[in-house]
Amino acid sequence: MSRKRIYSILITGFLFLTIHHGYCQGRFDTLTNKLNQVFKQDSLPGMAVILVNANGIIYHQDFGFADKQNKIPYTSATIQNVGSVSKTFIAVALMKAVELKYFTLETNINDILPFKVVDPNYPDGKITIRQLASHTSGIIDNPAVYPNTYKFYPDIRAYDKEALDALQSIGYRQTIPGRSLKEFFYNYLSEKGKYYSPGNFGKGSPGSASSYSNIGSALVAYLIEIKAGIPYADFVKKFILSPLKMKNSTFFIFNTNLKKHASLYYKDDLVFPLYDLVTYPDGGLKTSAGDLAKYVSGLINGYNGDKLLLDTGSYRLMFTPQFSKENPPKDINLTYRNKGVFWNLYTNGTIGHDGDDPGISAFVFFNPVTNMGGLFICNRYLPDKKPIIDLLVQATSIN
């Protein structure tokens, strides 16, 4: 090949990369501007947004403050709760437990638990792990119990009494002590338990009706804990956090670097006290946008054959629709999403999960066609995440 021909190819390649880079940069500048508009419109304190592909971060933007009073910026290293995004970690842990042959998705929970669970409405019903993972087990969140599983720490950081009073007025009275999954689930599900009630179960038979259940989700983590012989938090660290080098992620406030932890806002400048959950697997993960970016990239790689976390078959099973359009369970609308194993399978082609809790909102997702995905987390509850999610989904739909 002549030097002239080589030179022509190099110039063409350089021009393509330059144009492509300029196109991406322009597209991301537009994304930043639109995100900033939503951020201001919703008067959020702070937020981090990251987009990734299989190789890592392709877009990152921070907004506002982790601590408004002390003017501490919100960054990708800022740590906060991510609510029900935590359930996606139960999903990965569950698939790992199946790989380790602890059980299958069809296993009856009474074959594992050290006490017997009987649905008082359907005493002959069989509750399976698959039903727990698709929110159809019949085990529900009793509103007289579940809010009391939150444990607040008013002594470790300044907070506003009005914010805590607002939570207490709707049932967050932290009347359930400890953080042991074993103790809580015995008391909630055993007929001899302190918190046992027919109100802990739904009206439909196991598998027949959908009811989003934090407690049912955390029960999967407890089953893993029983079979693994180690705390669920340690299982997640061993099989997910450590392989992905997610060094800023933990479930408990006293294991968290409080210097990096965001203030969690109620409204305006009112701050909640920091908190843990007794049923911590269902919503208690504390992490950063930077760590979540590693997680989403890891999922994209895993979906495409990488076995750092799971075998390929486990990913396929985790992302397999659990409900048929012809015969779905009661009380579920499949117009916008189906369910995988905990994950939401959205009809726009993405796979993800959102999270909400006092003072936080979060969302993670990826597109298996474009092999891109992303996340956002912010330190105030955001009642409508759709404007942000739509922007991120659109930005990752172009390969």
Figure out the total of helices.
10
Major sheet details: 8 strands, antiparallel
Mean pLDDT: 93
CATH-defined fold name? Beta-lactamase
Give the low-confidence spans.
Answer: 6-23
Name given to the CATH homologous superfamily: DD-peptidase/beta-lactamase superfamily
- Oligomer description: single chain
For the secondary structure, the number of strands is 14
CATH class: Alpha Beta
CATH architecture: 3-Layer(aba) Sandwich
The H/E string reads HEEEEHHEHHHHEEEEHHEEEEEH
What is the overall silhouette?
globular
Spatially, the strands of the biggest sheet line up as 3-2-1-14-13-12-11-10
Q: In what range is the share of β-strand residues?
A: 15-25%
Percentage of residues assigned to helices: 25-40%
Q: How many structural units, i.e. domains? A: 1
Supply the helix-strand structural class. alpha+beta
Give the termini distance in whole angstroms: 32 Å
Radius of gyration: 22 Å
Please explain how this structure is put together.
There is one protein chain. This protein has helices at residues 3-41, 86-99, 129-133, 161-168, 181-189, 214-228, 232-241, 289-303, 312-318, 386-395, and strands at residues 46-53, 56-67, 72-73, 79-81, 150-153, 264-267, 270-272, 274-277, 286-288, 337-339, 344-346, 351-357, 360-367, 372-378. With 399 residues, the chain is of the alpha+beta class. The protein has a single domain, classed as Beta-lactamase, CATH 3.40.710. Strand 13 and strand 14 (372-378) form a beta hairpin.
Write the layout of secondary structure elements.
Elements (H helix, E strand, L loop, with lengths): L2 H39 L4 E8 L2 E12 L4 E2 L5 E3 L4 H14 L29 H5 L16 E4 L7 H8 L12 H9 L24 H15 L3 H10 L22 E4 L2 E3 L1 E4 L8 E3 H15 L8 H7 L18 E3 L4 E3 L4 E7 L2 E8 L4 E7 L7 H10 L4
Antiparallel strand pairs: 1-2, 1-14, 2-3, 4-9, 5-8, 6-7, 10-11, 11-12, 12-13, 13-14
Helix pairs in contact: 1-10, 2-6, 2-7, 2-9
